[in-house]
Structures are given as structure tokens and as C-alpha cells.
Amino acid sequence: MKMIYCRRFLLSFVLCFSITVTIASDYPKSIQKKIDKALKSAFDTDQVIMEELDISNFDSLNKENVVRNIKLSKLKSGKDIIGVAAFASSKGKFDYFDYLVLFDQDLQIRKIAVLIYRSTYGGEIMAKYWLKQFEGKKNGEGMVFEKDIDSISGATISGPSITKGIQKLSELMSELRKKGEI
User: Span of the secretion signal (predicted)?
Assistant: First the structure.
């Protein structure tokens, strides 16, 4: 029994301090499966190529610092650009959690997947039915927690945190489009 807790602690420690949000190919296989599943669900194709985008003036667009470790990838199917993947982290009560937001060509949210949730509390935000509330939204509009987005029991801190993070990513996408970056 003691060995199980030791392993669980060690795994949590390793995940917490060694994994950062990067492009999909840098994730462990279990996380890569979540990414692949989200891509297939959102774009109905098995063949999606991710090209990391280099955004030089990124920090100036993320002034409030609501999200961190933001990485963007252009999504291609064949030669066609089908959308953008945004990898990011937001803070729960004690720990950061990593998630993926998939945007289509019109920058409308197609799918959200929580990739790594490190805390013992608030994991309810990983529920697919709750994350579906964001699908179809764009430009950061209609994403006010407890107004447009329902609260969820057990996620008092992480619920508003991911909502604000997704809203900021959506606004960021719009700003980057206006600047011609994506």
C-alpha cells in the first residue's frame, strides 16, 4: 500500500515538474492519444499535420497572464489549413493543468480537451458534457462563467480558471488574425 502512494507521488512530481505544454509530438503516448482523439472528433480526419507557429509578439497580447505555456500549431489536412490548435495551462487551486483548444478556420471553438490535470480537486472540468458548452463560440464572446458557462460542482476554482483561459485564448486568436499572424 505504501509503495502505491510512493509511486503516485513520484508520478505526480515528475508530471508536475517535467512536462510543459509543447506541440503534440512532445507529449507522452497517453496524452498524444487524447490529442489525436480530439483532432479526429473535431475535424473528422485521421490525417492532421501540426505545424508549430512562432508568434513573436505573443506576450504583449497575453497581458493579463491568465494562461501560460501557450503554444499554437497550424492544423493541416493535406495542403489545406483546417484550423489552429492552442495548447495552454491555467491554474487550479494549487496546481496548473494543461489543455487543448481546437479552432476551425473561422476561429470558432471546435473541441476542448483537458490533457493533464494534476490536482486532486476540480477534475470535474474534464467532463465532456461540461466542455461542450464552449463549442461554437468565438472571439471570446459568450464565455462568462455562471452566466454563459454553467458552473460545475467540485470545480470552484478550476471551472472559472479554464473558462477565463479559453476566453482569453479565443480573444488572442482574433487579435492574431487581425495582425495577420494566423
Answer: 1-24
Vertex 168 angle, CA 167 and 172, to 5°: 120
Q: Compute the Cα dihedral for 39, 42, 45, 50 and give only its sign.
A: negative
CA–CA separation, 71 vs 22, rounded Å? Answer: 6
Q: How far apart are CA 141 and CA 7, in angstroms?
A: 43
Q: Grid coordinates standing for 60? A: 504583449
Indicate the pTM of the whole model: 0.82
Rg (CA), the chain: 16
Domain extents in the chain: 21-178
CA torsion sign, 114 to 74 to 166 to 62?
positive
